Amino acid sequence: xKYYPRVAVVILxxxxxxxxxxxxxxxxxxxxxxxxxxxxxxxxTDDSVAFVETNYPSITILHNTKNLGFAGGYNxxxxxxxxxxxxxxxxxxxxxxxWIEPVISYLESNPTVAAAQPKILAYHTxxxxxxxxxxxxxxDGYGYPFCRGRILNEIEKDQAQYNDCREIFWxxxxxxxxxxxxxxxxxxxxxxxxxxMEEIDLCWRLKRMGHGIAYVADAVVxxxxxxxxxxxxxxxxxLNFRNNLVMLQKNLSFTRCFWVIFVRLWLDLLALIKFLxxxxxxxxxxxxxxxxxxxxxxxxxxxxxxxxxxKENEKGFYTKSIIWDFYMNKIRKFSMLKVENFK
Length: 343
Description:
- By secondary structure, the chain is an alpha/beta fold.
- Helices cover about 35% and strands about 20% of the residues.
- It is built from eleven helices and 13 strands.
- Strands 1, 2, 3, 4, 5, 6, 11, 12 and 13 form a nine-stranded mixed β-sheet that branches. It has a two-stranded antiparallel sheet with strand order 7-8.
- A hairpin with a 2-residue loop joins strand 9 and strand 10 (about 155).
- The radius of gyration is 19 Å and the shape is globular.
- The termini are far apart.
C-alpha cells in the first residue's frame, strides 16, 4: 500500500465569506487521501466562521483573538496543527482535484527541498499566469522579486513553456507547501511583516539554512489575487517597499548589504517621483513611510540577522538587475534572460 504523508491544508481567513463560499468546495473536494482541512480565523467580524461551521462541520476552525495579518496569523494558527506537511492556501484560490499529490510526491523524492509551490494561473484569465507566484519565484541582485511567467507587471500566457519541476528562489504564499519541521526550525514568518513578502523572506532564510525551494508544474491552482489589499491600495505599496528593505537587511551578507540597500533607497526615490508625476500621492507617501520605518527599526531588525552553519542554496538568484533589463534591455519574458546570469 502506498504511503501518503499527513497533509494539513490551512486557509487563513479575515472577513472572507465571499471567497470561502466560492472556493472552499474545490479545496474540500481535493483527492489526496491523507489530508485535513483547517480555517484559521484572524478575528473576523463577518459571518464567515458561521458559514464554515454550518456547511463544513468536518473542517477544524482555529481562532486568533485579533487580526495578526498573514504572517502573524499563520504563525499562531500553525502552533495548533500537526501534520508532516503544511499547505498554506489563500482563501481566493480555486484548486484542481489533484493539486496536492504532485507537490508532496516531489518533496518526498527530494529531501533537501523544504518548500514548494504549484503552477499558479490567474482565476479570471485562466490561460495566463498569475502575478503572485506564476511558475516560481526568483530574485535579482538588488532584491527585486519576479517570476517565471511574470516580470514586473508583464504577465505571460501559459503555453506549457514552464511545464517542468525545478528549484526556484521563493515559493508563493498563495499556495505554499512546506515541511512541518522546516517551518518550525526556521521560525516561520516574520510577524513584523504583517503581509507581503513574508514568504520570500522565509524562503531566503530556508535557503541560507541549506534547503531548496521548488516549483511543481504538475499541480495547478487558480488565484484571484488582491483579495485583501488590491494593487491600487497605498497600504500595499507601503508594505511591499518596507518589507523588501527589511528582508534585504536580514538576509544579505554584511559585505553586500550596505551597497544594495544604498542603491535601493535611490531607486525607491525614483519610484516615489514616478508616483508623484502620475498623481498617486498616497503611493508616494507610502514609499516615504516605508523608509521612515526602515531607519526607525534598523537596530531592531539587525538583531534578526542569523548565521547558519550550512552553505546557502543560491539557486534562483539572478545576479543582474531585472529593473535594468526590463526598462533598458526591453526584456519582458523570463525566456529572454540569459541562463548564465542565474546561480
